[in-house]
Amino acid sequence: MELDAKSQPAAAPGQQRARSTPFLEVRNLHKRYGGVHALRGVSFSIERGQTYHLLGENGCGKSTLIKILSGAQPSSEGDLVIDGTPRKELDPIRALQAGIETVYQDLSLLPNLSVEENIGLTQQLVEGNGRLFRPLHGRRLRETAKGALAKVGLPTDNGFLSSRIEDLPIATRQLVAIARAIAGKAGLVIMDEPTTSLTRREVENLISVVRTLHADGVSVLFVTHKLDECKEIGGRAIVMRDGEMVRECDISEASKRELGQWMTGRELEEGRYRENPQLGDTLLQVADLSRDGRFADVSFSVAKGEILGITGLLDSGRNELALALAGVVPADSGEIRLGGERLSLPDPASANAAGVGYVPEDRLTEGLFLEKPIEDNVVMAILNRLRNMLGLVDRSKSAAVAGKLMSDLKVVAPNIKAPVQSLSGGNQQRVLIGRWLAIEPRLLILHGPTVGVDVGSKDTIFRIIQGLADTGMAVILISDDLPELLQNCDRIAVMQKGRVVATQAAESLTETALYELMGAAIRTGDAAGKTA
Amino acid sequence: MSLSATNEDHAPRAGFASRTAGFFRRYPEAFAALLIVVLCVAVGLLNPAFWQLANLFDILRASVVRGLFALGVLMVLAAGGLDVSFSAIAALVMYAVTKAVTLFAPDMGMLSIFIMSAVGGALLGAINGLLVNTLKAPSLIVTIGTQYAYRGFLLTFIGTALFMNIPPAMDAFGQWSLMSRTAENGFTVQLPGFVLVLAVAALATWAMLRFTLIGRAVYAIGGRPDIAERLGYRVSSVQLFVFAWAGMLAGIAGIIHVSSNRLANPFDLAGIELSVISAVILGGARITGGSGSVLGTLLGVVLITLVNNVLILIGIPSSWQTAILGLFILCAGVFFVLQKRAG
């Protein structure tokens, strides 16, 4: 059986569509890492030409499951039946031969190789069972790449084919990664958070790609946190919790509330978190703030105890505005007043000293020292205050500060000495918020506070944000997660092409209205309707 | 800074500076080529005696051993590693082979001698690769270790005495001349036949990197080993291969060194490591791995040979050569960092 399957790598699933066996059956899959039981008997099957959504909180075993399906790790127990053939030992090559393609969150692209190499090499590698001492078929490499690029709507000229991945914008990379996955004769394409860095329009493009894949009998398994998006795309939901599969159903049959409940095992609020805001005097006043080519004449104000949302498309200047307010990339002209006092913010240290806390978007690259303990990360911004007589950091004081913040923010960790990288995404985000709370800021700027965070942690982070505003802190929430803004803010400012085009009370706004203000009026629902 | 999603956003800003940066980014070899041209023109203007064929022969002769080493370093560097043991491998192979041939088979032909040293070098290189794979240690550390180990093994177990009477086949090979010219100062300068060895090695390395899957795999694991592994590249096989290839080239280089000097000195070739690595870097390879080309490497080697051999023609004392070389390397470093930022 095994040999047979190898000699015909990834037999075209399209031809077998008529067969009644599912493409993949997962039977009673277990995975143990030392003493940790990460997967506890997961079973499900993937039919041909369908969309699936694998849902679950961080640490529920989703990633482990994907690693096993893609051959990156062996399972401890259980069977994978692919195309009716039981497979015990999968390695990356055998998984690809069997027709399982995986687009990891980091895209699995080789930055220093060209687009065509990234797309076409895998196929030639798989055909030779991973043997490397073979000639490279240059022409076929190009043909493979062209075909796949055309399917995802990317250019197929020689210039693009030979450009290096590291020279491409992130959204293009994401599409190249998807092109690679569909270049071979895949039966199942697994996509881990494929839409994180895509704009609306690109997401729509992706969805239409998925529909053409279905027509060829290819199934797609999305792994995602964005419940709204899942519901828009449609298909079946596979919900996991604590290493077990808790529910499989048609996603249209479940409400977001129910899905969240199955994932977390507890009731989650779906409505507004913002209740009885107590607004004080105006704290922050921004007037005519500009930075050449990024944003222009931006004016707004935030009161004590108020939560202001700022949103816009990727190129709207919202990210640059956040960086200017935090002193990371200063503005060229305009005025920032905090409590009536004019601030110049040439660098992050002066923002910090003025009482402005900034929690960056990408907690991994911009904020945290991953291999350092929680304590060190939390007190990083207040080392000056922790000095003892000798000018050294007072360890007991720093432990007390860190300990208090950790319990306030409900960080789940063995102790404050645990390295941050051992925590889940949501807890890492809380540590980062903790660092800026330690400076006791008057104004807190949160940039995409729940990117890559599961629903349960999202809930906790929202409650923390509300609690902070209730203490009289002014909060600016910069995000492209519209439900997040609608649930948490008092007012929302929308940016387009570097300018604030509208500032409205959140209660009077809807997602659709926000999309229109952002200049992204085409909705996924319409696009899906056209292609279906 | 901007996270713009389309290429068009970058288009209007492409002025002369960024186009130049883009050109060097695409063809990093051009940097070494440019320096070579500038150097040649400068030296040629100050001393027209530079423009004679005899000088070219000299430069080629002096480039062969360093060139072979550099091709090996390129392979390891492209795969994301660093090898500093090649000089010790060359010394061990050249001395052991010369001694063995003299003692046991003085009439052995040159081809057999080359095969013996290539295999010997490849085995020593493979030991590097195995250690890197099993210890999961940085290859720089591993090869510093094996460099001492190989050199120590040579001096302890094989010998320390100079070998003046090298086997006749090697002697003849070292004297083999493709062409000869009488220079203006009356000396006769020859284009040695062993230049062809470098040409063959360069062609073979180039073809292997370009036209085989293993060649692409070298760059793949040099770019991101973790991702390459996930995509089904066997990282350990590639590691083993690049170190064996580097060892093989080092063994061959050792034999050429002995043949052209007509002398086997077990203390030779020590300290050449940095200048070889510099040649590869000047040729456009990134020290962090995943890039570099055979053409660039050869240009880098020629550049370093030029600095070492021709500055004397315009009266720059040899002590200054090192300083100028350092300046070039700093320039290359700054240059490549700047265009990375620009890109």
TrEMBL record, chain A:
Keywords: ATP-binding, Cell membrane, Membrane, Nucleotide-binding, Repeat, Sugar transport, Translocase, Transport. PANTHER family: CARBOHYDRATE TRANSPORT ATP-BINDING PROTEIN MG119-RELATED, XYLOSE IMPORT ATP-BINDING PROTEIN XYLG. Residues 24-267, 277-522 form the ABC transporter domain. It comes from the Bacteria. Residues 8-19 have a biased composition (Low complexity). Gene3D superfamilies: P-loop containing nucleotide triphosphate hydrolases. This is Sugar ABC transporter ATP-binding protein. GO terms for molecular function: ATP binding; ATP hydrolysis activity. Belongs to the ABC transporter superfamily. CDD domains: ABC_Carb_Monos_I, ABC_Carb_Monos_II. Residues 1-21 are annotated as: Disordered.
UniProtKB/TrEMBL annotation, chain B:
It comes from the Bacteria. It is found in: Cell membrane. The chain crosses the membrane at residues 30-51, 63-96, 108-127, 148-167, 187-209, 240-258, 270-287, 294-314, 320-338. One of its GO terms (molecular function) is transmembrane transporter activity. It is a multi-pass membrane protein. GO terms for cellular component: plasma membrane. CDD domains: TM_PBP1_transp_AraH_like. It holds the Pfam family BPD_transp_2. Keywords: Cell inner membrane, Cell membrane, Membrane, Transmembrane, Transmembrane helix, Transport. InterPro entries: ABC_transp_permease. Its main location: membrane. This is Sugar ABC transporter permease. It comes from Tianweitania populi.
